Amino acid sequence: MAEYVNGVIDKIDAIIIEDYGKGVITPGLLENIVGLAKRKKKIISVDPKEEHFKYYRGISVITPNNHEASKAVGFPIKDDASLKMAGKTLLSKVGCRIALITLGENGMAVFEKNKPMVHIPTVAQEVFDVSGPEIP
Fold it and tell me: How far apart (Å, rounded) are the C-alpha atoms in residues 82 and 105?
């Protein structure tokens, strides 16, 4: 995988890493890809796995959910004050430009250094069954 990224790095603007903790995204792979992308000044976005936070240092954007962010910062996110503290802590701990914490039905919170938190609410959507009618 690192060889592939090395071969296409000059043709892309960003790298998105989805770390589901299944063994594909390893510390060695992260070190290689993140280092290369940083040298090439590419945007690096990571949907993290809580056990790997120490390997994401210096990325552009991190997008943990509430649970992952709580584990990463070492305290529960239970209200607006702890959410703001978690966002600030994540920015510092990971050294990223943006931390976006997803909050399920409560939307998401976006953090940037020296800027106030931006809360983006969810919008209820009517859901349609696109798989077709049920067969009796």
Answer: 18
